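From the pipeline queue, job 12 of 40. The input is one protein chain; the requested action is below.

Action: predict structure.
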Amino acid sequence: MLKILQISDLHFGPPYLPEAGEALQQIIPSLQPDAIVVSGDLTQRAKRHQFEEAREFLDRLPKVPMLVIPGNHDVPLFRVAERFMDPLGLYREVITPDLNPVLALDEAVLVGLDSTSPRRTISNGRVHLDQLDRCKRIFAEVPPEAVRIVVAHHHFVPGPGYLRDRNMPKARRAINCFVDLGVEMILGGHLHHSYIGNSLDFFPGNHRDRGIIIVQSGTSTSSRGRGRERNENTFNVIEVGPRILTVIHYMYFEARGEFAPLSQHTFPRPGLPFDPSHPADARPGTPSTP
């Protein structure tokens, strides 16, 4: 079974919480992830020292395949000339030069999308047609049994509470494209509160029989949690099996000084019913959804 760890919205800078960051570093090795996804906003204000602190944090994580994408806070907001001329220059220099990375694993292929669009929109992001065309080319080469996952910082669906957050412009266009391509899951951040559900909760889509699992992480290491996760820190672990996909949602418990599982969400693979009696679908000893 493939295990993918998703963290997001680290926000190195004034909002970063060292105690949450250290607790995250402590628990990750015990989870034994096969891959790690960082879904954007590594910094608060895209300053060099903040990127360097984020880089040091990433270097301490287990040495497994990693996919990292930028968020809107990794673009300089107030350094206007830099934002227009070289908006992700420091990110590319310190974190990674690849803004739209691809991570090919045995059971899954993850396509990262840079949704920052700094010259057009800062807060709500954008995914462009050329990025969707690239997704088509990449997923065309993926074996049918592999799980297809898209990673973008900005949200395609509003999630719970709404909090006056606008969806990413052209979100419906992207969702329809992803459904046609057989994408099973989208990982994201940005909202600073978690949501684990399905795109069919918001968009009819091109195929009513198969929406896309949406997995939004809250902020993993900062004080900027919102809504029901105000002042909370969270991350997700995604387990990929031949018949089911499971998302285990973790939260930081300050009194205990550690992250612990809060809920579990299980989804059958497309075309397969969920059968608890099937050995591949039963997961004894794991937390149950409240």
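Job complete. DSSP finds six helices and twelve strands in the chain.
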